[in-house]
Amino acid sequence: GTEFGLFVTVDEGNHWVALDGGLPTIAVRDLDIQRRENDLALGTFGRGFFILDDYTPLREISAETMAEDAALFPVKSAWRYIETSRLGLPTLDKAFQGDTFYTAPNPPFGAVFTYHLKDGLKTRQERRLEAEKRAEEQNATLPYPNQEALRAEDEERDPSIVLTVRDADGKVVQRVTGPRGKGLHRVAWDLRYPSPRPTDPDPGPSAPWDSPRVGPLVLPGAYSVTLEQEVDGVVTQLAGSQSFEVVDLGGGTLPVDDPAAALEFQRRAAELQRAVLGAVEVTAEVKSRIEHLRHAIVDTPEATPDQLAELVAIDGDLNDLLVVLRGDRRRAKRNEPVDPSIVGRVNRVVEGQLSTTQPPTNTSRDGYRWASEAFAGTLEDLRALD
Questions:
Q1: Following DSSP, what letter does each residue of 100-131 receive, concatenated?
Q2: C-alpha dist (Å) from residue 363 to 209, 276, 304, 347
Q3: Model confidence over 219-268: pLDDT tens digits?
Q4: Averaged pLDDT, 112-121
Q5: Which alpha helices (H) appear in the chain, and where do they start and end?
Q6: 174 Cβ contact list (under 8 Å, min separation 6)
Q7: CA–CA distance from 299 to each of 286, 293, 307 (Å)?
Q8: Other CB atoms within 10 A of residue 239 CB
Q9: What are phi and psi of 293, to 5 degrees?
Q10: 38-43: Cβ within 8 A, 24+ apart
């Protein structure tokens, strides 16, 4: 610790490098190691305390490691538990305590992956601009790129870093994306399977009290992670896999006799939710096509009244299906009681399992069974309408 920040050496003091990671330029007056978690604690002059969570990757850094195109460092065992907050919703940080209420962020939940990229992944345009900059520094002249090269730049999707998590049997559990820039990076996996909700490339903002887009929590056990890159649709491995353990924190009040069976129910319920919400997406597409056809019939002199009547009948049948699928919204908006819908039952079952490590209740099992039986017939009717 110095007057101008934190410095680290990996070669017994021959070279020192500033270790910032967002640390302001401030006098570091004291250092201490929390040996159980391998955290580095910094006491500063006038700016409070800072914690570097799990500094053990520094032990693996060497000149040889830094010379590699990419390196994936050992992964610390991850505690498995249900994250919550004494102040309210975990996504709200200070909850509703007011901006002057002091809080500090917790370490990221889950398994934290640390990797190093020597040069990073660059797009065609970024590589061309760097070459032009070097040429300018050397008073050289580069040829102007042809139209094919410029078109390739415009159509290229940015390359990406992907950390693929697998279970002890080698099955892919989750894929986590990470920064592609040069240097050291850290990303966290939340110890969950992917969300069963339909994929949305642009989900937009959500309220803090909305259910998170996550899947069931994985079981304790052995897992591994590999560092990969995706460039032009081709995925290649950048670094060898690292093994790690997911360890149950053991804070549950009620014992779980068969965790695997509880997870199996959660995954079946998640698959049902995926299918049900996908069916809702289909109804929206059919509604859009019906509206388009309404205008097309009016705009087409050769169209007949029978075609319009048939379209109105299809629209009515679809509205009846929507009542079964997602509930009677016309009654609900008038504060009238409505029957439970398929979507409502499934969402309640799945969301109830997201915040517990306990096995499903009989109410959850009944809700799953009723929703599954009702959805089977509804899905056939929807396919016919589609």
A1: TS---PPPPSSEEEEEEESS----HHHHHHHH
A2: 23, 19, 52, 13
A3: 999 999 999 999 999 999 999 899 999 999 877 777 778 889 999 999 99
A4: 94
A5: 57-60, 63-67, 124-137, 147-155, 259-299, 305-326, 329-332, 342-354, 362-385
A6: 164, 165, 189, 192, 193, 194
A7: 20, 10, 13
A8: 20
A9: -70, -35
A10: 38/76, 42/1, 42/6
* Per-residue pLDDT reduced to its tens digit, 17-42: 898 878 889 999 999 999 998 999 99
C-alpha to C-alpha distance for 190 and 110, rounded to whole angstroms: 5
The residues that bridge with 17 in the sheet, in sequence order, are 8
Residue 362's identity, in one-letter code, is N
Phi (first) and psi of residue 17, to 5 degrees = -130, 135
Q: At what angle do helices 342-354 and 305-326 cross, to 10 degrees?
A: 30
The residues, any chain, with a CB within 8 Å of residue 18's CB and separated by 6 or more, are 5, 6, 7
Mean pLDDT of the chain: 91
